[in-house]
Write a structure and sequence with these properties.
The chain has about 130 residues and is mostly helical. The chain is built from 1 helix and no strands.
Length: about 130
């Protein structure tokens, strides 16, 4: 019976040792689970922070694009105003040039008429002198 008691005591020691090891394993697993829980929380915080940064970057990019579009539209308006001003100036210059040409033609015509009248007068004068000499 002593042998049986010793075997039972040995079995009890092994069972106690196994229980201690299982408790140690459970404690280790709880610690690991706690660490994983902390890591998951940190990862969620990181994901949230990255999402916020991405949204802010998107908003910033959208604002930059809107500013670029607005500046481009303003440049187009300025260029159109410049084109219109240059077109008006060119039309005015063409009109002035055409008027100068008309004025020159009128002056040339007037001068030609005066020269023709002067030539006619000179011819008559010469003819009358030539007839008086005969």
């Amino acid at each position: 019976m002593d042998e049986e008691i010793r075997e039972l005591q040995d079995a009890l020691k092994r069972s106690n040792e196994e229980i201690r090891q299982l408790r140690s394993t459970i404690e280790s697993l709880r610690d690991a689970a706690g660490l994983q829980h902390d890591e998951i929380r940190q990862l969620r915080n990181t994901v949230g922070a990255l999402r916020d940064k991405l949204e802010q970057a998107h908003v910033t990019e959208e604002e930059r694009v809107q500013r670029a579009i607005s500046e481009g539209c303003e440049q187009v308006r300025e260029l159109q105003a410049t084109i219109n001003a240059l077109r008006a100036e060119l039309e005015r210059m063409c009109h002035d040039y055409e008027q100068k040409i008309r004025d020159m033609l009128v002056q040339q015509t007037s001068e030609r008429v005066q020269m023709q009248e002067a030539l006619i007068a000179m011819r008559k004068n010469l003819e009358s002198r030539h007839e008086t000499r005969r």
